[in-house]
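The instructor's notes for this session suggest beginning with a concrete chain rather than abstract definitions. Hand out the sequence below and ask the class to guess, before any prediction is shown, which regions might be ordered.
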Amino acid sequence: MTLSTFNLGSRTVARMGYGAMQLAGPGVFGPPKDPAAALAVLREAVAQGVNHIDTSDYYGPYVTNQLIREALHPYPDDLVIVTKVGGKRGEDASWLPAQTPAELISAVHDNLRNLGLEALDVVNLRLMGGHAPTEGTIEPQFSALVALQKQGLIRHLGLSNATATQVEQALGIAPIVCVQNLYNLAHRADDALVKLLAAKAIAYVPFFPLGGFFPLQVQALSDVAARLGHTPLQVALAWLLHRAPNILLIPGTASLGHLRENLAAADFTLSADALAELDAIGAKAPAH
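After discussion, reveal the predicted structure:
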């Protein structure tokens, strides 16, 4: 498998990465039904050339980070683990904000402990508010993480679920290396932000690249995929890789078969005609 690369801060990563969220139990809560299978997926991803894994200590909670440590520690020298802070889980599996400086500091230490690291490669400040960002100052939260970076506990910073205004606010405080927002073939609200970040050599990392809670069920996508001899989800991933050079992908799965299908999307090229058909999907999709 040939994976193109991008510089994520001081590290070079393959643009096709892996998202660990689905390794936890149903609803991203509790342990997986098959822990051995989860460990196998992580090990296979790295064996296939993936060196960018996305996670968070509130997946489970704690479950995915502990699985990553069990599967891969001591970590390969080129592996970049990106985590996020800013949320927590209720006992009823609810998703709750955890945005105070004290909560963010505690979360960073939880990630360090559960991953078995002395410093985190990248920490994204996850801004709560559903899957669409909302405006508001991020100075207190982001400054708390900058202080931890100065202590040597964090190497690089990023944002998740952020607006363009919040990105600019963060950049006025400290450098960031990535922004992780909802974006895919049919959900294109961040087109301008992708372009802005590309000009600044900052990575854009789509979450729900395959639709997530809004699965990509678009006839035009299915038609292009059938013509090319690939699955619709492979074509959706390939489109993202073609969309901009700063896009890094983190599709998640708990299945070895799906993992291999996802990684294979990095291996084929979309023609200009196919890209035009796929680009048109975003123009026709309803706003979310």
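Then share the key points. The radius of gyration is 18 Å. Residues 12-213+245-253 form a domain with the TIM Barrel fold (CATH 3.20.20.100).
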